[in-house]
Amino acid sequence: QISAMLKDLNVDSKFVDGRRVTDERTMEVVEMVLGGLVNNKVVNAISRAGGKAVGLTGHAGGGLIGATQMEHWVVDESGAKAKADLGLVGEPTRVDARILDDLITVGAIPVIAPIGVGIDDGSSYNINADTAAGAVASALGAERLLLLTDVAGVLDKSGD
Prior knowledge:
With about 160 residues, the chain is an alpha/beta fold. It contains four helices and ten strands, in the order αββαβββββαβββα. The radius of gyration is 17 Å and the shape is globular.
């Protein structure tokens, strides 16, 4: 849905090793799509099924998901390593589980868009959804993490 919205808005999109290069305009679209459209659809689906869902991004509560800019390295044609600038692509550095614990305590189901807040400057960061989910699960002390996705890439030891 991000790619479709970028295309509709005539914003060029580039990928490096499967990661979307995220400039400021692209980040605005990521926030619109993931923090708005997609998050609301998931919250509504849970609500229609009888759950009490609350939509969030990493900005919730002043910093639900703290992030820093991701360092990504590529190998060029000569075999040399070079740092690739992915822009506002981030890695989670901390998750404030207290916010989630408070919601869970009152019976709410947190629905979190994978958008982090820069721990140094408050910038928004586009975080890989699987990575964000893992960081949240770890912060909550979860015994299991189940990922439902239509994207190949999260594989078990046997490659399935």
